[in-house]
Design goal:
single chain; 201 residues; alpha/beta; four-stranded antiparallel sheet; globular; binds inosinic acid
Length: 201
């Protein structure tokens, strides 16, 4: 599944400043789309007649939520939360600052919480506690990616796209310093990119 980046495989439109920093593609656009179609079918079956409210956390979930929504064949509603990028200290305490709250009340609604990646689980845990206090009829989690190595809190993840290795990845919504979100695949950065950041370039 892990592929070394080969320029011949890329759409010329993607041969750019962005792709030159990518070392390997881990999950291709085709693989992502196929898995999202499968999850969409499952959600459409599970939530028949329930008019679920799908809640995405900005910004990483942008592409996943947009593609997932189009693969779902039952009526759904959508809302967003945004959280601030937190300091390492705050993150270790599991504290997340909400910078945008929901527009919709969720009391008695069937909520499907949509995440890009669950790593330690601290962000998700904080947000689920917050949403649970608002008395929804149910809450389930759908995440495109999960990593297991650093999980600090065990959380029920009902729908999972892919398990990732214990590496920092970019693309398909995931960023490094706000860059690389718009790559259509998920990949690893070349080591010099991470080193360059550390040296303050
Ligand atoms: P957690 O609180 O450790 O579970 O972190 C979840 C958040 O960390 C995600 O919503 C992402 O914003 C970010 N994150 C975790 N792993 C990666 C990665 O490999 N690339 C980009 N962002 C990541």
């Amino acid at each position: 599944m892990h592929k070394r980046m080969n320029n011949d495989e890329l759409n010329p439109a993607h041969l750019s400043e962005l792709t030159q920093d990518i070392d390997r593609i881990l999950i291709t656009e085709v693989e992502i789309n196929k898995r999202i179609m499968e999850i969409g079918t499952q959600i459409s079956n599970d939530y028949q007649g329930k008019n679920p409210l799908m809640i995405g956390v900005l910004k990483g979930v942008l592409f996943f939520l947009a593609d997932l929504l189009r693969s779902i064949t039952i009526p759904v509603e959508v809302d967003f939360l945004a959280v601030s990028s937190y300091s390492a200290e705050a993150r270790n305490k599991g504290v997340v600052r909400l910078v945008k709250d929901l527009d919709t009340p969720i009391q008695d609604r069937h909520v499907l919480f949509v995440e890009d990646v669950v790593d330690t689980g601290l962000t998700l845990n904080y947000l689920l506690k917050n949403l649970n206090m608002r008395n929804p009829a149910s809450i389930q989690v759908c995440t495109l990616f999960k990593k297991e190595k650093h999980r600090l809190i065990s959380l029920p993840l009902k729908y999972v796209g892919f398990e990732l290795p214990d590496r920092f990845v970019v693309g398909y919504g995931l960023d490094f310093r706000e860059k690389y979100r718009n790559l259509p695949f998920v990949g690893l950065l070349k080591p010099y990119v991470l080193a360059r950041e550390r040296e303050g370039y």
